[in-house]
Amino acid sequence: MTVSSEGKLTTGHIGLNVTDVARSITFYGTVFGFEVMAEGKEDDRRWAFLGRDGQLLVALWQQSEGTFSTNTPGLHHLSFQVETIDEVNAKADVLRELGAEFTYDGVVPHGENGESGGIFFSDPDGIRLEIYAPTGADPKKAPVAGAPTCGFF
């Protein structure tokens, strides 16, 4: 009998369908500091691989129309972790300058018996995103009473 031993499992990259890959490269580069690792510029095959420190994190595929839909199965939201609430708030400032749409004004505590919390917003295609820190969120300062744990509902 063979017993399989499974090693560490981590999430690889995330692939997102977008309507304008150049616009999304600018957005994700400005907000997250992603660099273009590779890019396809053929008219019918526009794509970009974005990452940091040589690691692929997000792949953009220009192959959709309209805006992100919460009415069909698929991605609920994409979340990125930073180290501190100060970093979350600094990212919120960048997003405001870009005119991003926020779900709530301010940090939303996760409410999982800890101090984690983040900001919830949409990219230019309406894809729901979160930036959070594992500590530093103050549940008393939630933007709305009973804010949902995940920030999107």
Automatic annotation (TrEMBL):
UniProt KW Zinc keyword: no
A Pfam family: Glyoxalase
Signal peptide range in chain numbering: none
Gene3D superfamilies for the chain: 2,3-Dihydroxybiphenyl 1,2-Dioxygenase, domain 1
One example GO MF annotation: lactoylglutathione lyase activity
Alphabetized UniProt keyword annotations: Dioxygenase, Metal-binding, Oxidoreductase
Residue ranges occupied by any VOC domain in the UniProt entry: 10-134
InterPro entries in UniProt: Fosfomycin_Res_Enzymes, Glyas_Bleomycin-R_OHBP_Dase, Glyas_Fos-R_dOase_dom, Glyoxalase_1_CS, VOC_core
Entry protein name: Putative ring-cleavage extradiol dioxygenase
Organism in which the protein naturally occurs: Saccharomonospora xinjiangensis XJ-54
Lineage: Bacteria, Bacillati, Actinomycetota, Actinomycetes, Pseudonocardiales
